[in-house]
C-alpha cells in the first residue's frame, strides 16, 4: 500500500483537512502527535476521519510494519499456482488503490525565524522519508527557499512534491495557496492600490481565539508595525470550506483593533486539491514501475 507523507504548516491545516476529507481511498491516516496536532485532529474527526496519533518515534515504526510487503522470494514461490496468482493480483491492485497517509503538522510560529523554519522542514522530511513512497510539502516557498534545503530535499529516500498552481509554479506562501496561485495573488495585491495590506484566513487569525492574546509577546510584536497608518487594508479570504465559525468575528475584531478597511475576496482549495492528487498519482506510477 503506498505511503504518502505530508509535512504541513499549521497555517494550512484547514486546506489539508478539506483535502483529506474528500479522499475515499485513504485506508490508514496517521498524525504525528505534538502540541499543535490536537486541534487538527478534532477538525479531522468533525469530517468523520479518525486518525491514529502517536509521537514520531512510535508512529514511524508502526507505519513501516503495517505496510511491509511480502518478500519477493515468497511471491515467486507461489507465482505459478493459478488461484494464488489470481488472488495475489487482485490484492495487489486493491492495495495500490488504497493509501496510507501520514501527516506531520509543524507549528506556524516557526515563521518567526525563516532559517529555523527551513531547517525543521528538512529535518522532519528527512526523518519521514524512510517510511514514505513520496512526501508532499504543504508549504509555500517560505518552507524551503534556500538553495541548500532544496538540494538536500532532492537527496531524500523518496520523491518530494510541492504545492503548485495551475501555471505549474510553486506557490509563494499560504496566501497564494488560499487565493489559488501566484498570478491571482499578484492581481489581488493590485486591488490595494499600494496601501499596506494584511491577508486574513481562519488560521492566520486563530490566535485571537486564545485567552489574553493581546497581552502576549506575539501580539505586541505584530502591533509594532500594524499600528502604522501605512497598513490600512485587511483582505479577508473567504472560502465555504473553512470550518472555523469564529473567522468572521475575528476578522472584524482585527480590523477594528488596527483601524483597517476590510475587503472580501474569494478563496479556493484548488491548489491544495490538485497538488495532493498529483502527488498520489505520481506515487502510484513509481510503485508500478
Write a short abstract of this structure.
The protein has 289 residues and is of the alpha/beta class. The protein is 45% helix and 18% strand.
Q: Would you spell out the secondary-structure blueprint of this structure?
A:
Blueprint: E1 3-9, H1 13-21, E2 26-32, H2 37-46, E3 52-54, H3 56-66, H4 72-77, H5 82-97, E4 99-106, H6 114-128, E5 134-138, H7 147-153, E6 160-162, H8 174-179, H9 182-190, E7 196-200, H10 217-226, E8 231-238, H11 247-257, E9 261-266, H12 270-288
Parallel strand pairs: 1-4, 1-5, 2-3, 2-4, 5-6, 7-8, 8-9
What features would you describe in this structure?
By secondary structure, this protein is α/β, with parallel strands linked by helices. The protein has helices at residues 13-21, 37-46, 56-66, 72-77, 82-97, 114-128, 147-153, 174-179, 182-190, 217-226, 247-257, 270-288; strands spanning 3-9, 26-32, 52-54, 99-106, 134-138, 160-162, 196-200, 231-238, 261-266. It folds into 2 domains: 3-171 and 270-288, Fructose Permease (3-Layer(aba) Sandwich), CATH 3.40.35; 181-266, no CATH class. The strands form 2 sheets. A 6-stranded parallel beta sheet has the order 3-2-4-1-5-6, sandwiched between helices. A 3-stranded parallel beta sheet has the order 7-8-9. It is globular and about 75 Å long.
Amino acid at each position: 500500500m503506498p505511503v504518502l507523507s505530508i509535512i504541513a504548516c499549521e497555517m494550512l491545516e484547514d486546506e489539508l483537512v478539506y483535502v483529506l476529507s474528500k479522499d475515499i481511498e485513504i485506508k490508514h491516516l496517521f498524525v504525528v502527535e505534538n502540541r499543535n496536532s490536537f486541534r487538527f485532529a478534532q477538525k479531522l474527526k468533525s469530517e468523520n476521519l479518525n486518525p491514529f496519533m502517536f509521537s514520531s518515534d512510535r508512529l514511524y515504526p508502526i507505519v513501516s510494519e503495517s505496510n511491509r510487503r511480502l518478500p519477493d522470494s515468497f511471491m515467486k514461490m507461489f507465482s505459478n499456482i493459478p488461484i494464488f496468482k489470481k488472488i495475489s493480483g487482485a490484492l495487489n491492485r486493491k492495495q495500490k488503490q488504497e493509501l496510507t497517509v501520514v501527516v506531520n503538522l509543524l507549528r506556524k510560529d516557526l515563521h518567526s525565524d525563516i532559517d529555523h523554519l527551513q531547517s525543521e522542514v528538512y529535518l522532519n522530511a528527512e526523518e519521514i522519508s524512510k517510511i514514505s513512497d513520496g512526501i508532499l510539502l504543504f508549504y509555500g516557498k517560505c518552507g524551503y527557499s534556500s538553495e541548500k534545503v532544496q538540494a538536500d530535499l532532492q537527496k531524500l529516500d523518496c520523491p518530494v512534491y510541492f504545492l503548485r498552481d495551475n501555471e505549474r509554479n510553486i506557490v509563494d506562501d499560504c496566501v497564494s495557496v488560499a487565493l489559488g496561485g501566484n498570478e491571482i495573488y499578484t492581481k489581488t495585491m493590485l486591488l490595494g492600490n499600494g496601501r499596506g495590506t494584511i491577508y486574513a484566513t481562519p488560521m492566520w487569525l486563530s490566535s485571537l481565539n486564545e485567552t489574553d492574546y493581546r497581552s502576549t509577546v506575539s501580539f505586541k510584536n505584530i502591533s509594532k508595525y500594524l499600528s502604522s497608518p501605512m497598513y490600512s487594508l485587511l483582505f479577508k479570504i473567504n472560502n465555504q470550506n473553512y470550518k472555523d465559525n469564529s473567522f468572521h468575528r475575528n476578522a472584524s475584531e482585527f480590523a477594528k483593533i488596527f483601524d483597517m478597511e476590510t475587503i472580501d475576496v474569494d478563496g479556493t482549495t484548488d491548489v491544495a486539491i490538485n497538488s495532493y492528487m498529483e502527488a498520489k498519482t505520481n506515487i502510484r506510477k513509481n510503485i508500478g514501475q
